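Q&A log
Question type: sequence-to-structure
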Amino acid sequence: MQYQFLGIGYLTWITFLPVLGMIVVLLIPRGNSNAMKWTALAATVLQLVVAAVIWINFQPGLTGINDPNGFQFVEKARWIDLPGVAWFGHVAIDYFVGIDGLSIPMVVLTSLISFVGVIASWNINRAHKGYFALYLLLDTGMMGVFVALDMFLFYVFWELMLLPMYFLIGIWGGPRREYAAIKFFLYTLFGSVLILLAMLALYFSVSIKDPATGQMMHTFDMLAMMNPQNFDPNSLLAGIGTYWRYVAFIALFIGFAIKVPIFPFHTWLPDAHVEAPTAISVILAGVLLKMGTYGLLRVSFPIFPDAILKFAYPLAIL
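Response status: OK
Response body:
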């Protein structure tokens, strides 16, 4: 069943409604702070309404976790299609979103926390335009992570959260806000580089048949990456229990562990919590810290089950 409004899927609405709100905020005259607040509130209320509609129509009996046939509200369309890009070859990237039993509670939670965060931001007393524009952009980044089923799209949304959080802490935070923001930025940037390297290794190791041409092509499709049969036999990450698969898993694990955060990658968190504005601290505790665990469960564990067995005891200790 197709769930759409005005020809646009519900997951697209719930992801990009905050961006529409951000555009309106940027168009409001600088001195009209009340209009900016109400616009941000309206955007998050509408997002919460869409989340409620999705929750009501979600069918838990037909879903699972990381089951290719269990995703609902799926939207898939070719986003980037380049016939030949140097040694990348044919680059085909899809706008591919959907939710299952793992992501549906996070979608609802993100909508609720974003709404609460706007209310907690009501007494922000300076630079209202910048604050609420960045806040709504952060909202879209968080929601996008939980609905993306394409690794490239997932990474875009993951990175989309970094700059808004940096500025929201660094400009509207407490006395040591600049130190806390830079520390958060550096830790997250380091993790993002590791995720990017693992993502590229996966891209060049996994191939599927292009439905349009019938030819084999590399893909960022997460569901394809979860199927060992889609790994090219001579690729870097082919096989089970190989050295480079362990390296790629460790890179992904560290990248996501920084966001959890897991020892010893946790020292950025106390500074960020203390110095962040109240609303951002709420989002940090309510949503962002869960994104690292979500990344492990959505990406790392299902793609590298052999590495989970290999490192089970060290992971349990951490």
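Response note: The chain has a mean pLDDT of 88.
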